[in-house]
């Protein structure tokens, strides 16, 4: 039996094309997915990104699905949130071919049930892996069919219907698509809005010739920052490879933290539904639950990861959720993540008043943060325990282990230390009142981690 543990991750399938992932294996994944969802749906909707390998892999997956008697609706080139829209609006399970922000040699599959409900290790992905490892049983009935459907215009119209920009002042916005799927979706979504788009790297190119499509790395937004300053833009937006995440820079070219965006969008959603619940993961700024509470909402803290966010949104009926990684989830979007909808909210808020984005977001940026710092360690458990022992028992210190190790210190500073699921890394996030306090606490914790 093949061992697929190296490519079947917590939330998706991802690997190096030609080494870990090929058409034959992907066909088996398609057949196994069809077996999983056959009792629930008659068809599967499939989309793919701009990577060179994506069309062939998507076709192989479709072949696997139809081999089990289910039909396929192919939407062709799509962002991940466009695939979620198709799954939600058509009420069909879906599969998206993308490796998001990973380098060109990678590809992968994100799967969902009807209504964009996630498929992760605990919700079907482990079962799919087991089926493929043990051998997919043959189906002797009639094969399914493949049809094509273009949902881009419907997707764009749906988003524009959720955020009213008709009263916005004209805005100049630089958009860096990173040669990813933002170059496919932004022109249609922004068409007719009072926004002058200055495009950067809109050419779909899975080799990523300009920079990696990973805006979480500061090196990959340098071009955007420079262009915003050069053209005097009101804001800049950077999308990752599959365009489900969106990062924002202000008119000075300075990054706006995803926590500030989470708080800003939460306030707008709470204005529509007072008293609503807002989800935030435990690495977002503590300013997020403070602001949500101040605006009459109910903040709920959860683990990192879209499957946890979506499950908690379903349990609580939350109207919105945000993560430190710039994933934004909306109840009005089938609880799925869409950076595009978050971007429209930011631009609507900016266009409704005359001040700059830096002034608007200042109210939502209360604390200084380190960003995520990775350390390669030989023994994750031992280093985590060393850090815990160093702080446990100290006066006024609170420790919880909801996701990794979170340590709350007297005076309001805190840090979270989490092990990577796939690499020998520990990930550290620190927040405190000011930059000097962040740097001091970061140095203190890293000395323990890297001892």
TrEMBL record:
Domain Alpha-D-phosphohexomutase C-terminal: 372-446
The keyword Iron-sulfur appears for this protein: no
Cofactor(s) for this UniProt protein: Mg(2+)
Keywords: Isomerase, Magnesium, Metal-binding, Phosphoprotein
Highest taxon of source: Bacteria
Domain Alpha-D-phosphohexomutase alpha/beta/alpha: 8-134, 154-253, 261-366
Family under the similarity heading: Belongs to the phosphohexose mutase family.
The protein, known as: Phosphomannomutase/phosphoglucomutase
Organism: Amycolatopsis halotolerans
């Amino acid at each position: 039996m093949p061992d697929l543990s190296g490519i079947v991750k917590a939330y998706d399938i991802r690997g190096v094309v030609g080494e870990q992932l090929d058409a034959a294996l992907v066909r088996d994944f398609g057949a196994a997915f069809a077996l999983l969802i056959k009792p629930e749906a008659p068809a599967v909707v499939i989309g793919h990104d701009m990577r060179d390998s994506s069309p062939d892999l998507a076709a192989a997956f479709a072949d696997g699905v139809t081999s089990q008697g289910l039909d396929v609706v192919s939407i062709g080139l799509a962002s991940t949130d466009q695939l979620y829209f198709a799954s939600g609006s058509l009420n069909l399970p879906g599969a998206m071919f993308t490796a998001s922000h990973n380098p060109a040699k990678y590809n992968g599959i994100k799967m969902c049930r009807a209504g964009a409900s996630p498929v992760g290790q605990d919700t079907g992905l482990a079962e799919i892996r087991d089926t493929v490892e043990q051998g997919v049983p043959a189906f002797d009935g009639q094969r399914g069919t493949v049809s094509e459907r273009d949902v881009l215009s419907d997707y764009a119209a749906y988003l524009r219907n959720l955020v009213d920009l008709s009263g916005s002042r004209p805005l100049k916005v630089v958009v860096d698509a990173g040669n990813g799927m933002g170059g496919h979706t932004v022109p249609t979504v922004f068409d007719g809005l009072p926004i002058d788009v200055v495009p950067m790297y809109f050419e779909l190119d899975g080799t990523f010739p300009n920079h990696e499509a990973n805006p979480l790395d500061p090196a990959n937004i340098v071009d955007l920052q420079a262009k915003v300053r050069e053209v005097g833009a009101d804001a800049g937006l950077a999308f990752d490879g599959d365009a489900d995440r969106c990062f924002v820079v202000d008119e000075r070219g300075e990054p706006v933290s995803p926590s500030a965006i989470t708080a800003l969008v939460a306030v707008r959603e709470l204005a529509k539904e007072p008293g609503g619940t807002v989800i935030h993961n435990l690495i977002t700024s503590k300013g997020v639950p403070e602001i949500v509470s101040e605006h009459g909402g109910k903040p709920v803290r959860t683990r990192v990861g879209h499957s946890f966010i979506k499950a908690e949104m379903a349990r609580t009926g939350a109207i919105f959720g945000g993560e430190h990684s710039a994933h934004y989830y909306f109840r009005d979007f089938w609880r799925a993540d869409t950076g595009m909808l978050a971007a429209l909210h930011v631009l609507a808020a900016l266009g409704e008043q005359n001040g700059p984005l830096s002034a608007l977001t200042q109210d939502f940026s209360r604390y200084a943060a380190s960003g995520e710092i990775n350390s390669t360690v030989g023994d994750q458990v031992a280093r985590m325990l060393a850090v815990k022992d160093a702080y446990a028992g100290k006066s006024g210190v609170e420790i919880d282990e909801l996701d990794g190790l979170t340590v709350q210190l007297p005076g309001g500073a805190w840090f979270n230390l989490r092990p990577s699921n796939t690499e020998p890394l520990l990930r550290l996030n620190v927040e405190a009142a000011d930059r000097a306090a962040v740097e001091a606490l970061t140095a203190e914790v890293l000395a323990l981690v890297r001892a």
